[in-house]
């Protein structure tokens, strides 16, 4: 009996030496391995892994990372679940959109096992079940959208797929973190039609932008002409106002000068020998006017006694004397003094 126990212990120890390296293999190698870790009494569970142990064919407990002890023969590691985030490549599949366009879509699914017990006993193959669920959910969600919305609402489509997967995979102890669509393939004819539509839309936008530019250009040119005309009219108005003001000032200056000249002339006539000076001035003007005859026109109107200068001067002085007698001087009218009688013409 003792020999049998020793032989059994040696076999167990030998098997433990062969299986210990197997405890440290990666998750992908464990999934691909044909055998699970053997019960070596003392087991070391790696971090982020959960080992499901059965005792006599019934669930016993889940081994936590670190050192664990099992009873030989009675306990057996039945499932090994990884608690890391798992990336699953969803193979390409066909789906029909709402407007009856067949699409070829593939994606990537990110999930994590939250409950190793449910993941071991709730579903036969968790990865396969989630993959099939993602494919069917993606086909269902794509059937609710048109082709144009599939490209515009990829984010909302991904969130809808994640929500649908989580509702179904809650009993499996699996949590879907996110789903991303990698590529969307459309039929060649549909792709050509989409390309033509894009080119037509770009041409439309280019034509609209060109027309808007021409309209803005026309408006700017019209506004410029309007402002130019307004400024030109304002300039012409200011020029006329300035010219009128200058002419008015010139007329006032001429009138003022003429008024001063008349005052000086009247003062000179009131002095002694003023009539003689006036007669000389009239005679000079007569001679100057007579010398300019027939220079500007051939038509002449001459008095009968054109050569009698003394008679003309006497006649002018007589007219001046009569006017001086009829109208009093301006200074006497202002001061109220009686006008000074001018001496009779010589």
UniProtKB/TrEMBL annotation:
Keywords: Mitochondrion. Mitochondrial protein that probably regulates the biogenesis and the activity of mitochondria. Stimulates cardiolipin biosynthesis, binds cardiolipin-enriched membranes where it recruits and stabilizes some proteins including prohibitin and may therefore act in the organization of functional microdomains in mitochondrial membranes. Through regulation of the mitochondrial function may play a role into several biological processes including cell migration, cell proliferation, T-cell activation, calcium homeostasis and cellular response to stress. GO terms for cellular component: mitochondrial inner membrane. It is a lipid-anchor. Signal peptide: none annotated. It is found in: Mitochondrion inner membrane. It comes from the Eukaryota. SMART domains: PHB. Residues 40-198 form the Band domain. Its main location: mitochondrion. Transmembrane segments: none annotated. Belongs to the band 7/mec-2 family. It holds the Pfam family Band_7. InterPro entries: Band7/mec-2_domain (IPR050710), Band_7 (IPR001107), Band_7/SPFH_dom_sf (IPR036013), STML2-like_C (IPR032435), Stomatin_HflK_fam (IPR001972). This is Stomatin-like protein 2, mitochondrial. Residues 324-346 are annotated as: Disordered. GO terms for biological process: mitochondrion organization.
């Amino acid at each position: 009996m003792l020999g049998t126990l020793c032989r059994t212990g040696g076999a167990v120890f030998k098997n433990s030496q062969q299986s210990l390296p197997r405890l440290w293999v990666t998750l992908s190698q464990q999934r691909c391995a044909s055998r699970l870790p053997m019960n070596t009494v003392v087991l070391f569970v790696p971090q982020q892994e959960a080992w499901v142990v059965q005792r006599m064919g019934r669930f016993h407990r889940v081994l936590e990372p670190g050192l664990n002890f099992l009873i030989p023969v009675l306990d057996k590691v039945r499932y090994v679940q990884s608690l890391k985030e798992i990336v699953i490549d969803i193979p390409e599949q066909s789906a029909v959109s709402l407007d009856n366009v067949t699409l070829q879509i593939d994606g990537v699914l990110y999930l994590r096992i939250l409950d190793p017990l449910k993941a071991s006993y709730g579903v036969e193959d968790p990865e396969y079940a989630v993959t099939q669920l993602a494919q069917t959910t993606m086909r269902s969600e794509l059937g609710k959208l048109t082709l144009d919305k599939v490209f515009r609402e990829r984010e909302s489509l991904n969130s809808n797929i994640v929500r649908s997967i989580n509702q179904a995979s809650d009993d499996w102890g699996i949590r879907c973190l996110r789903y991303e669509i990698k590529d969307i393939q459309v039929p060649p004819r549909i792709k050509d039609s989409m390309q033509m539509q894009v080119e037509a839309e770009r041409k439309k936008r280019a034509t609209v932008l060109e027309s808007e530019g021409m309209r803005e250009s026309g408006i700017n040119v019209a506004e410029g002409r309007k402002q130019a005309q307004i400024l030109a009219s304002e300039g012409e108005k200011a020029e006329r106002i300035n010219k009128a003001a200058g002419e008015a000032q010139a007329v006032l200056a001429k009138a003022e000068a003429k008024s001063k000249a008349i005052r000086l002339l009247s003062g000179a006539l009131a002095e002694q020998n003023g009539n003689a000076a006036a007669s000389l001035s009239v005679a000079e003007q007569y001679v100057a006017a007579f010398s300019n005859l027939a220079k500007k026109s051939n038509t002449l109107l001459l008095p009968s006694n054109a050569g009698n200068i003394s008679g003309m001067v006497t006649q002018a002085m007589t007219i001046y004397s009569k006017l001086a007698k009829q109208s009093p001087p301006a200074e006497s009218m202002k001061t109220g003094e009686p006008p000074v009688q001018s001496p009779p013409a010589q």
